[in-house]
Structures
1.
Amino acid sequence: MDAERRGAGEGWTFFTNHAYVLLCVAREPDVRIRTVAQCAGITERAVQRIVSELVEAGYLIKHRLGRRNFYEVQPHMPLRRPLDSEHEIGESLRVLLDRADGERAQPPQAADDHEHGTEPDVQGR
């Protein structure tokens, strides 16, 4: 049955590549572009373009620590279509970040600390 379910939708998905990139970054803010490409099933070049678009649109904030980038998801940002624009991206990410075993992944937090001038916690990165 699992094989039948997996093959039923080959060729299309319910989410865009932008959603997959955002989900990968929400799971691991200091993730490398190469890893996002593998996670989302797209090329590194496509990930770079999508990350740039998400930063430009305000869905991600890009931080630099040494030679590494890490990204802060802005969960308060609205979904982009009129049909669902009253919902925030954080709502969708929280659902998608739920793990099957009932353990919750860390949902993205609002950037309140960033807006008040404090630096994000980057220890261990």
2.
Amino acid sequence: MAHVLLSNHEPLKGCVICVDVVIPSLSSSSTSFIHCVFAVYAPCDPGADNLSPDFWTCLTDVVWESKTSWSLFSDLNATVAAFEHASDKALAQHTFNEFLHNSCGTDLWQLCPDHNCFVDWTCHNWHSTGGGNIIDHVVISGHYLLDSKILIDLTWVPGSDHRAIKAKFVLKSLVPGHAAASSTPFTPFRPLPPPQIKFPLKDDKYKFTLFADSVNHLVASNSASFQTEITSDESYVERYKLLTILIEQAAVNIFGQNKPYRFVERQVTSPHTRELVALIRHLGRAIS
């Protein structure tokens, strides 16, 4: 279906490829659904020739005509805000923002309020030492997006002035008759870190002696295991693990453990507020 839509738009030929994939549902109350994936190489200058000015308009028509959830990624040659670029590409920025608005798409970089072109650049000149531009994006149809994450992959890509990006996102099914319940917010699973060993207070320094005695007692209780000669990497690792278990057991018994830290994420939802927060953080870096 997707390739048929592309063939009707001349400005997209040679710049966009797409494929329909079936996303299996993890919920018994909904069904699998089709997701359209677009790989896009956008024109650097939307006014360079007769076809480029219509590129983003045609792509907007295609994503609406697809009637499914969609995502697009790759070198979009455009930024969203001033703090994403070191060089001025005002026209490309304007047309890309128009596409996001008209297509109801969500640029995953916009969900990272502290990203900037000095640290998170995806492309820069070969001899540049002052950052670059964030022109490689992942955009998801906003009505289907539940949760996402995007970051820079620092693996060197030979023969390119770009850095790779990684993105993960969770979609919801909006199959007719099986609409997802918008009243139930999506909460991604974040396992709690293991409880940490308590460090003794000034008045509890005597516990260090108790700890040392406890370790000696546990080692003596496992003396047979420590009499085995270490002759290989495997035997060394086994001995190391045993010592670690005994030391941790003694520490827990003598010092105790703290309660697990529960991280409460307070996500800023207002795009304007997110941009202000990002600008404040960038200013702080400049002053420091």
3.
Amino acid sequence: MNEHRGEVDVRLGGASYVLRYDANALVLLEHESGITVTQLATAGETALNGVIGIKFIRAALYAGLKGSNQRLTIERVGEMIDLMQLGYYSQQVAKALALAMGGPGGNADAPGPESASPGAGTGNGSGGPG
């Protein structure tokens, strides 16, 4: 596990996995849960701890695990979920999402696009006027 990369350990179905949300995982989470990343960021961790249901937890675990487990299906994640551990899963998902979005415990100090050097990303390869 590497928290600097947004990775969080999660125990699921008797095994340990790494939960991580990159852009693809967040798109998959939006698709599977029907909740946008903007809504998640606005709701914050409080929403995950008690308001979000099992559909969201299953979708969040699936999306966060899929990047490193391409053969994984959402149905398989559902089979591995221990219903007595929903609070634990919510905490791990909230932690991984916070790391991904730069929230508490996240990577808020990482340089954003506004700190890029002049000419960076112009596409002409020279960094200067095209």
4.
Amino acid sequence: MGCSAGVFTRASARAKRTYWVIIATCVIVGLMLYLYCILIEFAMAVILKKEEKISTVSDTLPDNYVLDDFITKFKELYPKDWNKLEKSYNDHERKTKPGKSHPMPTPEQYLKNALNIWKTKSN
């Protein structure tokens, strides 16, 4: 008779182990990719060399400037960074479910916060 019950059982057990190894590997790889995406999203600064740029913008303005002057000058000196801020904010808005909030402030508020932090550090 062609196949004994013992051989069939060993082959079946081997196939089950292989199946579970493949499943476990897929799950681990999927989790690693997910964590990598989260890490990249949160690790990347929205504005590179932010303090340097805040300082440069502040130095080009008169001493009694207001926030609107600062934002206007920032947009003028660093249009790519301003666009990146807007894009990042819009991406967060788009990905957030209705009725929920996300931690990213508006671009104007982001610059206001960055300016206040820079002023605190520079004094």
